[in-house]
Amino acid sequence: IFPNSDRNTAMERLLWAAVGAGVMWLWLRPKKIQLQQQASSIDGRSTVHDAGDSSKISFAQVQRHAHKAPDALEPELLAEQLSRNVLYFGEDGQKKLSDAFVIVVGLGGVGSHAAHMLARAGVGKLRLIDFDNVTLSSLNRHAVATRDDVGIPKVVACAQHFASVNPTCEVDVQVEMFTADMAEELLSGNPDLVIDAIDDVDTKVDLLVAANAKNFRVISSLGAATKSDPTRLLIGGFDDPVRDPLAAKLRWALRNRILNKEGDAKENTLKFKRAVSNIKVVYSCEEPQAKLAELTEDQKANPQAYGAVANFRIRTLPVLGTQPAIMGMAVAAYVLCELADKPFDPRKVEPVSHSYCHKAHNRLVQRESKVYKNKGNEEGSLPIADQLEVTHILEDVWKMKSAYRLERNRAATTNLCMTRFDRSKPALPFNVVLITESEAAWHEAETALTGTVPRMLIDSCEYSDLSLAEGHPRLRNPPALDMMQSVHAKLLEIERQWQGR
Q1: Distance CA 145, CA 320 (A)
Q2: 166 and 69 in contact (C-beta within 8 Å)?
Q3: How many CA atoms, within 13 angstroms, populate the side-chain half-sphere of residue 344?
Q4: Cβ neighbours of residue 439 closer than 8 Å, sequence gap 6 or more
Q5: Are 324 and 109 contacting, i.e. CB atoms less than 8 angstroms apart?
Q6: For a disulfide at 171, which of 25, 65, 157, 464, Cβ 3.0-4.6 Å?
């Protein structure tokens, strides 16, 4: 075309590129039109409750979400969309996700991100429950809402977006505030898991009590507001959270709701453990980094006029949008892996600092020398766990809780020390218990009498049945026999693993 051969070659390449792009466009356009037609064919109307008056039923246009569309995607396209999931979970695991039913209560920062990822991952049915509408101030943390969604229910905004991502996901929209009176209806249908993403204590307690009555598994998100460090996020049991004001209030409120104050203390303890046994929590062990906004003069003068509903918090929580998003993703990861039968064992307590582990190791070495006359580094001495093994004992084996109680309370997490469980074995990870100083004094006195393990195990008796000689240490809160047997069994299992290394 041009006299210059180099320029001629360049123009030929440009023309061939243009021809190739045109061919690709002509090939892809029918596919795009087909998908748009399939998606639009399942637009429908869904019954939702009016947020302003929960007694009235109204119809709202909620596109492409109300009912599952069997032919919403060609099988090969859906298979490609979920192919990375299948590589991770396997065909059987992905099938379990497509058959699963999950209820999400609270579609704010945490709940919207959790529900969003469940829909993307191919979960078959979601029920979204929230009475609140999208506001401008919620856009800094909501997973899918835009300015166009301001003023509509959060659950509707989610449902509309999920339909454009995965039209095969059946989304049941409930524009309702969760209450004890509504629990039977809102928790109907035998869900595989319930996600609690509510930020009000009383409402959270209503949900947890109702879910416990039905024996449903629950994962509950705790305080995401006023925090920022994503590396401090943990997943644990209901008693694990520390430095979380919402967790403390929730434990107090739940105990008040379900326990008999006049009843037996031991019975109440067992009742509470049963009530929270199916609850996992996602929480941050970071100290709060900001305070609630102060009330304005108008709010102080007429506080009832400013709550979202009666008795709800009025003061505004500072929220860095990334924190609820990360927490929601953590919730979704836990739920997906549980549903697909590929669970992970999450870190349940804050990592122990290097300096704490160093001091704990030094105290163990000193105790070995003082109580057991074992120097560790001398010929003929029994080995002692090193600092790395001490870290494992503190974090992974006993999770910074007394082995005698395994509770996250002040009595079981302060003045902790390590000592041998069986006096005849070395102080290695399979024979070291983490207990309080007073418990250690009693334990060491007991093993000094037997030469091995405490008499409770040898005689299969409770602490109250022991005859304690003059000067023998006493325990104010002694371990039960079944707890002692559980500790022993756990250490024997660790020893078997240790020997098989």
Answers
A1: 17
A2: no
A3: 14
A4: 402, 404, 475, 479
A5: yes
A6: 65
Pairing of strands 233-237, 416-420: unpaired
Count the Cβ atoms, other than its own, within 10 Å of residue 452: 15
Least Cα distance to 313 among 370, 254, 249, 357 occurs for 249
Task: Find out whether 174 and 148 touch, Cβ atoms under 8 Å.
Answer: no
pTM for this predicted structure: 0.70
3-state DSSP of 105-169: ECCCHHHHHHHHHHHHCCCCEEEEECCCECCHHHHHCCCCCCHHHCCCEHHHHHHHHHHHHCCCC
Burial class (CB in 10 A: 0-12, 13-18, 19+), 284: buried
- Cβ burial of 317 (10 Å; 0-12, 13-18, 19+) is middle
Please, are residues 238 and 276 in contact by the beta-carbon 8 Å criterion? yes
- Listed in sequence order, the residues at least 6 apart from 297 whose beta carbon sits closer than 8 Å to its beta carbon are none
DSSP 233: E
Give 27 or 141, the one with higher predicted confidence: 141
- The answer, yes or no, to whether residue 305 has pLDDT greater than 70, is no
Burial of 173 (0-12, 13-18, 19+ CB in 10 A): buried
Closest CA to 491 of 417, 398, 405: 398
Phi and psi for 375 in degrees, rounded to 5? -85, -20
The per-residue pLDDT for range 113-163, each reduced to its tens digit, is 999 999 999 999 999 999 999 999 999 999 999 999 999 999 999 999 999
Tell me which residue of 450, 431, 445 sits closest to 488, measured CA to CA. 431
pLDDT tens for 184-229 read 999 999 999 999 999 888 999 999 999 999 999 999 999 888 788 9
Give residue 194's pLDDT. 98
Name the helix (H) or strand (E) containing 28.
helix 5-40
- Per-residue confidence (pLDDT) for residue 492, from 0 to 100: 95
